[in-house]
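Lab notes, practical 5.
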Amino acid sequence: MSLTYTFKTDQLTKENIQQLFLSVEWESASHPNDLYNAILNSHSVATAWDGGRLIGLANAMSDGSMAVYFHYVLTDPDCQGQGAGKEIMKMMLEKYNDMHTKVLVSYPKAVGFYESLGFEPEETSTPMYVFSS
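Output from the prediction step:
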């Protein structure tokens, strides 16, 4: 496996984004048009590729000055453990190094991964959501 990493979005398509999200069984994949638009309208997107196959992605939303929120961070399960997720998050953390606040919401099984990158749980706050159908 020869992985490449980029912030360029010219290779992203509705299909390869949806396929990646389907690989991790995320509900977002059932909204391919909205998902594609969300990714392309992100403040930035870091991707991992195995040849022409999208195998990892992280996107950021930011005010450009104080805070950045990493919304989607995912790696195709067939490629997990190869360092792709860590590399795209390192790219993001370097890009947003000067931000005062860097935030993400982690699934419980991924907490250790994010802790290895320097993230810590915030004991005085709770993530809150409003979901629309």
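Observations recorded by the TA: The domain at 3-115 is CATH 3.40.630.30 (Aminopeptidase). The longest strand covers residues 53-62.
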